[in-house]
Amino acid sequence: MDRDQILRDHLTRLLGWRDAHLDFTAAVDGVPPALRDRVPERLPYSPWQLVEHLRITQHDILDFCRNPDYAELRWPDDYWPSVSAPPSEQAWEESIGGFHHDLGALRAIAADRTIDLLAEIPHGSGQTYLRELLLVADHNAYHMGQLVAVRRLLGDWNGKP
Known about the structure:
Layout: H1 3-16, H2 24-28, H3 47-66, H4 89-111, H5 129-153
Helix pairs in contact: 1-4, 3-4, 3-5
């Protein structure tokens, strides 16, 4: 196997987790509707806010990678939901589904040998595809860890660390 394929395989695994961290499915599995809007004492966010922030940010990075007409979101307003509760059960499910969909698209970018991972994104300001994929993996790991901590503080963690 050539070095390019080895790198792509590592990136797709990193984006899918399960080596050093739990994956998104495990982090969100079984969060009771009654706790999705709860904000633990001395923390600024609820499970909903973390889930939706993960989805929004990941989607934004994906959009940046493939949309020549990409428009930058405003930080922090466009990246965090302003309310602690999902508007509906459907919104919760759509956020989780959107996260999975976009993660699949990012993993496809990592695996696509027609994309030079070290090339600068044409409409960017020096960012490479590799940088953006690593940024997603790092960002997701950080906030999934926070989601597990929030669930533990709310007395809702039965999973493995």
